[in-house]
Amino acid sequence: MPIYLKLNEIAMNFRGAHILSVSQFQREDIETVFQTADAMAPYARREKVTKVLDGAILGSMFFEPSTRTRVSFGCAFNLLGGHVRETVGLQNSSLSKGESLADTARVLSGYSDAIAMRHPTSGSVAEFAAASRVPVLNGGDGANEHPTQALLDLYTIRKELISKGRDLDGLRIAMLGDLRYGRTVHSLAKLIKQFKGVKFSLVTPAELKMPGEIVEQLRAAGHEVTETENLEAGIAGQDIVYMTRIQEERFPNQAEADRYRGKFRLNSAIYTRHCEPHTVIMHPLPRDSRPEASELATDLDDNPNLAIFRQTDNGVLVRMALFALVLDVAGQVDQHARPVNWYAGQRG
Ligand code: NCD
């Protein structure tokens, strides 16, 4: 496995690192994560099992609703042979008794070999990590960042583009919906900033624009950024259309969120009329499928350019890669492998 021989020469020292922000990753680090993720595919497809993390424990602490991030972090650790111990909901944690993040981190890191954490407050996961004795992976901190989602999104984008003979430099991407509170688009935009000559089309209501400092960073790095409230213009001529949900839980009140729900909807008719034939449709999920929202209609589900479930599958590979890198076992995964015993079904 030649890629692992390079690990000592890489810019970022993954061993023991916390994964808190996409700003930690240079281009070569992103490449390391992606190559390691590629090597995880046989395990995620259940062609082989590995016990490389046998005996290791992941502390999984999710203090906001989560399905795919929480479960895919857990499955990624399990697929490497480790065990997962979950705390779900602030009310089930001593944080609700007034314990500080630092004390909780000191305690949990005594029980775990790595910690995956989601919390409603920006900066909280970094505060927690500062007191942890084991690597902490940010599963989303308020409206701030969601670095592992951005890595899996970019991994997906690259795979989709490669299948169409394109590369990340010169990418044309539209981001739609709630770019003010959406942490996935904050992290993804900052990660894509590493590449060259990207054209960003940001489609939002005026009140839900991408934070000005991120737009400035993108422009300062030489990228083209256009902001519009017009969906049809915003999605024309794009490689990727990345939809998002209105982040209702971050609005001061429900009535405010209701004003924006359903404002930008992508369905098959709009896609066919305004997008290029190969435009890839993405969404971090969950999509809000209630009739008043429906930002991504199910009539697109049979469209081969809909990549949303390829994103969720790729999340396991990328999270396996991150665990393997921060726990420094990427080079040993195959040494602890054996065939699966069970009928493993059909996996892409
Ligand atoms: C996103 C999140 O939690 O930020 N979901 C996810 O992790 N895939 C997006 C969202 O909740 O809208």
Shape: globular
CATH architecture of the largest domain: 3-Layer(aba) Sandwich
Count the E strands.
Answer: 11
Task: Report the order of strands and helices.
Answer: HHHEEHEHEHEHEHEHEHEHHEHE
Structural class: alpha/beta
Q: Which fold does the CATH topology of the largest domain refer to?
A: Rossmann fold
Structural commentary:
By secondary structure, the protein is of the alpha/beta class. It folds into 2 domains: 3-142 and 315-339, 3-Layer(aba) Sandwich (Rossmann fold); 147-306, Rossmann fold. The chain has helices spanning 2-5, 27-39, 41-44, 68-79, 101-111, 124-130, 147-162, 183-192, 212-220, 231-235, 254-258, 268-274, 308-326, and strands spanning 48-50, 57-62, 83-88, 114-119, 136-141, 172-176, 199-203, 224-228, 240-243, 280-282, 337-339. The strands form 3 sheets. A 5-stranded parallel sheet has the order 8-7-6-9-10. A 4-stranded parallel sheet has the order 3-2-4-5, with helices on both faces. It has a two-stranded antiparallel sheet with strand order 1-11. Strand 6 (172-176), helix 8 and strand 7 (199-203) form a beta-alpha-beta unit. Helix 5 (101-111) packs across helix 6 (124-130) and helix 7 (147-162) packs across helix 13 (308-326). The longest helix is centred in the last third of the chain and has 19 residues, at 308-326. The protein is globular and about 55 Å long. Bound molecules: N-carbamoyl-L-aspartate (NCD).
